[in-house]
Amino acid sequence: MKYVLTLATVTTFQKKNVNSNELGKGKRSGNPIPGSNHVYGTIEKANDGGVPAAIGQWRTVKPRKQEILQKLKRDFAALNKAAIKAGLITPREIQQFRATHDIGTLGKKVEKKEGLLPEIAFGMPTRTSTPMFDLLENKFQKEWLDEQKVRDNIKKKKKTHQVTLVKNYQTRAAVLSKAVPKVDPAPIVHPKRYQKIGPHLDTFRSIKARRAAFDANWLDSAARSGPHGHGVYVFE
Description:
Layout: H1 7-19, H2 50-56, H3 66-69, E1 72-74, H4 76-85, H5 91-100, E2 104-106, H6 132-136, H7 139-161, H8 172-177, H9 207-220
Antiparallel strand pairs: 1-2
Helix pairs in contact: 4-5
């Protein structure tokens, strides 16, 4: 069989080769650059007339009056006064009066700025220059050292006047060694009818044993809690 190459087969073969990747290289993702005769950008049409128009005439804007530049604003207070003077009271009548009449007021007049002198400098004023004599004699360092000395003296005075409270811990023996002044108890008020009646029980063997027990209890009550010293031992 014989194969005949036509123009269609050649173009399809070329398209396949163009779309296929090159051997050993990645697929290109950019567009081809145009030729050297291509001009980039947009074409600008000169409508100003060129040099002859610029030399022959000047395009100027005529100045407008200040009153024309200011927009008129409706003065509703004046409209309401005029409507009341005309005898109109209802809202519908006032609305019709506003639609047919108009009272305007000019806005605030724009003050023209007078010509400022060229010698005036705008902005923040500059800081005054530091004198060189103060820098050479270390004036700022001496002032800083004097301030630190004053602060240290104030701190020392506060420390001397400050009282440090130290908690003193005492043992039971130290508490018992203290002299406790003996206070006579308040007399118990007995009714007259119960004065001749004696106690039902007396657990002490003798009067001496009774006194010795009460004396020991009074001496030991200094280290105990409670109003009468009958509680647990308390050590500060």
